[in-house]
Each structure stands twice: as structure tokens, then as C-alpha cells.
Amino acid sequence: MRDAFWTLAAFLLVIFSLLLSYLLTKKSVISKEGGRKLVHMLVSFTVPMIVCGIENPLLRLAGPFVFMIVNGAAGRKKGGRTAGLVCYPLSILLMTAVMNAGYLSPRAVISSAFVMGIGDGAAALAGERWGRHRAGGKTLEGSAAMFLVSFIIFLIAGEGLLQALFIAAAAAAAEALTPHGLDNLSVPLLSSLLMELL
């Protein structure tokens, strides 16, 4: 019963995120990019539900797997780039599988998912709003937002000050330097690995 509850809760949060994004973009309250990042941010809150709420290790993998397949199909149908759409749930799938095997802590998986969802979302929104200084395809203002949000997340997760600074800097660098969409894979995987090693 517990697994069914948390699976349903995660599914409903994804549906709510998509509907809210659709309504806010349709009413021109936020841009299409803002709507996409809103979904990115809200969907990251399904990870604690999956990692801590669902006890069956295979069922933990089902949500990210289905999300990855649906995102890939939706991206192809719209003719857009699918790397980011597929890499975010793929990163959750991989981290959860490694956690199921006993090599990653739930804390590392959840924190890294929040860094990707919230940190990357903040980076995109800050870059769009205040970005004046470009480096590659990103803005320095966006990278600063990514660093700050990541640093706060790692501190809340219980990392020491120096560890949080180092991991946040690595996450911000990975987000800035990784080609478009692939940061959805590199940032959480690097963050979770560093959390376990430091």
C-alpha cells in the first residue's frame, strides 16, 4: 500500500507540474522556457517520494524509466531536442539503481536531483532575467545562481562548509561547460559522486 501511495503521489505531482506550466505559459504569466524550468523544478520533488517512499527497488526505477520514455517520445513528436528531456530522468534512474545496489545514499540522490532541478532552473531563469555576461552558451549570472542554490542545497543536506563549496562549484562548472541538455546527466551524477567521496 505504501508503494502504491508514493507512486501515485509522484505521478500526480508530475501531472500537476505539467498542468501548472501549461496554464501559466498559456496565460503569458511566464515564458515557454520559464514553464519548462518550472516543470524541471517541481518534478525534482518526486525524487524523495521515489527514493524514500517506495520500498520495492524495481518500482523505484519504474517512474524515472517511464518518464524517460514519455519525454523522449514527446520531444521527437515536437521535433525538438530530446537530450535534456531524456537525460534528466536517466540521471535519476541511474542514481536510483546505484542507490539500490548500496553505493549511493538516498541523501546524495535527493540532493543531486534538487541541484539539477532547482539549481539548473534558477540558473536558466537568472540568466534569462539578469544575464549580461556570456561565457560559451551560458551566462555568468546564471552560473552564479546555480552555484548559490547548489551551495544552499548541499548545506541543508548536511555537507560541511568546504565540501558544500567544492561540490557546488563543481556542479556549477558542470552545468556551464556541458553541452545543452547533457548537463541534466553530468550535474547530478557528478554531484552525487562527490557527495559520497568527500
Q: Radius of gyration in whole Å, from Cα?
A: 16 Å
Note the gap between the termini: 37 Å
User: Hey, roughly how much beta strand do the residues contain?
Assistant: under 5%
Number of helices: 9
Sheet with most strands? 2 strands, antiparallel
What is the average per-residue confidence, as pLDDT, rounded to a whole number? 91
Which geometry do the CA atoms define? globular
Strand adjacency order, main sheet: 1-2
Order of helices and strands: HHHHHHEEHHH
Question: How would you characterize the overall build of this protein?
Answer:
This protein is an all-alpha fold. It has one domain. It contains nine helices and two strands; from the N terminus they run H-H-H-H-H-H-E-E-H-H-H. It has helices at residues 2-26, 32-43, 46-53, 57-78, 83-100, 106-130, 140-156, 161-177, 183-197; strands at residues 134-135, 138-139. Strands 1-2 form a two-stranded antiparallel ribbon. The model has no long low-confidence stretch (mean pLDDT 91).
